[in-house]
Amino acid sequence: MVILLLAAWMVGILWGIWLMGRRNFCEDQRRAPVSGPQANSGVELVIDPDAEDGLSHENRGLSEQNVVISGCDRMTFSAAGKEQTVHFENPEENAKKYYLTFELRLYDSSGQDYEVLYTSGLVEPGKCIERIELSRGLAEGVYNTVVHVQPYRMDENKTPANNVDMRIRLIVE
């Protein structure tokens, strides 16, 4: 009887975790821990002048060596032009540890090739980018995109850590 109760309890917990993973993360920012080394791309990195003070979110109790990344599963853009509103944030929890860069990638129908629509400079902890200019305008429709987030350690070499690719459903109206 005890084993059945424990099994039912575990199924309930796993089901709850699955349901939480399906909600709209743009409304409630998701934080994903990331750590580990990766090769440098050779790109000269500078602080992005468009990054503004961001909204601080509660600390999720992650260890000091993890990167905290906020994300969402969909965005809505205007078909009216190249300038768009986003929320690319480097949370305050990354203070004295990591800069972040953001790249918006538009994938083709095969899902193999992509076009870069936007690339940020380094975003300091506690800062966010709210307005971006795309490399080109997009027609109305639904697009498969990825926000590629690259963390860099705040050392003199700006050593990259493991990156995160967040699949985003981009709706252009």
Give the gist of this structure.
By secondary structure, the protein is mainly β.
Q: What do you see in this structure?
A:
The protein is mainly β. The protein has a single domain (30-172), classed as Immunoglobulin-like (Sandwich). Helix content is 12%, strand content 40%. The model is unreliable at 14-41 and 56-64 (pLDDT under 50).
Give the SSE map:
Layout (H helix, E strand, L loop, with lengths): L1 H20 L8 E5 L17 E2 L13 E5 L2 E4 L5 E8 L7 E10 L6 E6 L7 E7 L7 E13 L10 E9 L1
Parallel strand pairs: 4-10
Antiparallel strand pairs: 1-3, 2-8, 5-8, 6-7, 6-9, 9-10
Structural class from helices and strands? mainly beta
Give the CATH topology. Answer: Immunoglobulin-like
Approximately what portion of the residues adopt beta-strand conformation? 35-45%
Shape: globular
What's the SSE pattern? HEEEEEEEEEE
Total count of helical runs of at least 4 residues? 1
CATH class: Mainly Beta
Overall radius of gyration: 18 Å
User: Could you give the distance between the termini?
Assistant: 55 Å
Helix content: 10-25%
Query: What's the structural domain tally?
Result: 1
Q: What low-confidence regions span 5 or more consecutive residues with pLDDT below 50?
A: 14-41, 56-64
Strand order of the largest sheet: 4-10-9-6-7
